[in-house]
Amino acid sequence: MSPRYITADWIYPVTSPRIFQGVIVIEGERITGITSRDLIDTDLLEYHKGILIPGFINSHCHLELSHLKGRIPTGTGLLEFIKGVVSLREVSQDEIDAAIEEADAYMWSKGIQAVGDICNKPDTFSVKRRSKIKYYNFVEMFDFLQESRTDELTRGYKDAFALAPEPKSAVPHAPYSVSPGLFAQINQLNSGKVTVSIHNQELKAEEDLFVSGGGDFYSFYSRFGMNLDHFQHTGQSSIYYGLKHMDPEHRTLFVHNTLTLQKEVEDAHEWNSNVFWATCANANLYIENKLPDYFAFINTGALMTIGTDSLSSNWQLSILEEMKTITKYQSRILFDTLLQWATINGARALGMDDQLGSLEIGKQPGIILLNYNPDEDNLADQKVEVRRLI
Ligand SMILES: [Zn+2]
Questions:
Q1: Rounded to the nearest whole angstrom, what is the distance from the C-alpha of residue 62 to the centroid of ligand 1?
Q2: Matching CATH number, 56-356, of 3.40.50.300, 3.90.1200.10, 3.40.50.410, 3.20.20.140
Q3: Alpha-carbon span 322 to 317, nearest angstrom
Q4: pLDDT digits (tens, 9 = 90+) for 299-348
Q5: Under a CB-based contact definition with an 8 Å cutoff, are residues 170 and 145 in contact?
Q6: How far, in Å, is the centroid of ligand 1 from the Cα of 198?
Q7: How far is the CA of 202 from the centre of ligand 1 (A)?
Q8: Whole-prediction pTM value?
Q9: Angle of the 238-245 helix axis to the 262-271 helix axis, nearest 10
């Protein structure tokens, strides 16, 4: 197969400075050269208007919830949101399967190369085995802090874990829903170099539960027949409970972090040098209408990644739309910074940076065209779109 010579106004390798009118040489799907236009015969060049970037990495998704698109109202807060998800069970398996298939194809068309995907069930596994997208399967477990019932409450998740395609790990859902005993079981299930994700500091009730032993979780859990009488609050925010019980030997991805403070980011970095943070801006706006303090992360050199969360809490599964939303609410974050979050950092978080996340010789990262002029356009207010070239 003869190589393709793809060029645009700028190429953004991500791990090195951008190149004006650069050329990417591609054989099959692999990059075999990065050069400039004057070195290539004009007739061979494939010209595009805009910028070329590597495929996006979606570090947090729940593909299996795709059938819930548009079914849950926005702005209710997380606890009402969960009640909404739980009450919507009467959907046929055919409908669930079709929505998963459609969402997978949509993400590919929107330039997404790999996804860190939360699974509670095996519903997505057959689509993933066929997909062009690379998936990291985070098989999520929770026991609502009911340690006496952990085995009964997590049997289905352990079955899903056994069936999940590689790469995979067992992961805790969130500090407020995983007992110390279940954390220990999860640590045992994970061997070798894996990534573990956890939903973190997403709502005030979570902080209330751990800091003061009060708040809305008591009534929330009692509604589901669980009681928290045995729960002993720690006096510290929820992330410290996670740090105490998770294995610092694993790459760890904290998700949402809408209430996380700079000191907590620093303490997590102290705990483990392989810590990543996922922001899901549209989902945060959808559910709690609050975004993280991004500068608490930027100021500490944190490795930020971008996730879409699920279609139950987002209008679409598009990393570009997440970048637009972050730019709209926090215009001081530069495009180059967001692009790192959206590509190489996510690839590192999923352990896929040997092939994905940057335009480098030898990698097969996907080639994405954005109709965007980084020196003139504002990402937030113009109609920038993704076109997948490779
Ligand atoms: Zn999530």
A1: 6
A2: 3.20.20.140
A3: 9
A4: 999 999 999 999 999 999 999 999 999 999 999 999 999 999 999 999 99
A5: no
A6: 8
A7: 10
A8: 0.97
A9: 0
